[in-house]
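Cross-check.
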Amino acid sequence: MNILDGRKTAHSFEAKIRAEVTALKEKHGREPKLVVVLVGDNPASMAYVKSKEKASKRVGINGVTMRFPSTITEAELLGTVLKLNEDETVDGMIVQLPLPTHINSDNILNHIAPHKDVDGLSFINAGKLANRQYGLLPATPKGVMMLLDHYKVQYEGKDAVVVGASNLVGSPMAKLLLHRGATITVCHSKTKDLASHTKRADILVVATGVVNLIRGEMVKKGAIVVDVGINRVDGKIVGDVNYDEVKEKAALITPVPGGVGPMTINALMFNVLEAFKNRHQ
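Predicted model, tokenized:
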């Protein structure tokens, strides 16, 4: 078993981003700017935003967080998004999810200008991914692919099983693996006999939010296992995969924490850089 070390990989990529940001600032007179819109005081959201702020600072991106109370109306939030779309100094924008239940998240996300949608969650960028067209990719699936590429994982002809079908991770993850030549199975909460699918996987990606969903007997020897889950149990962060059991069978496996999380933030920084360069071509 070897670890897919997201923390170490992200650290090495940050040096490349930092150097490119410096060069772009010299050429264009400013650094790329990322605006994160945070609504309410959800502890997990606040932690994610804080990590984005720190990463922006490390690589030299101008990271700004706009904070609003959970009582903000959908119309008010939409107005903020539209203003940021028109702001020529803003290169990338994120509306941190989840939003309060009285706000239609899809409506907000789909009004983000596609060229500033660095989370890749608008229907336009999702549609481009589905149709193999260029667009900004969702940060977590992109980060997973960057990590697998760094470890020289081969995709063509491999059986890849994605457990979880969300628009945030599972669905785009499956498309990215498909585009690289893997044969894809997507499992979800209605899947019968989950283990019969996961046992076939050469590459297994799990993103469900269910602690220890994947046990050792559900994974074949030599599989590559990517655990996207981030769950808090008794003050500790654990994944969707029972790490102690599965590590005995996996050829490569991501730890939690220190696996996918740092790569998600890293991929987001690359998306901001990409958005800036696209606007200045």
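The mean pLDDT is 96. The radius of gyration is 19 Å. Passed to J.P. for a second look.
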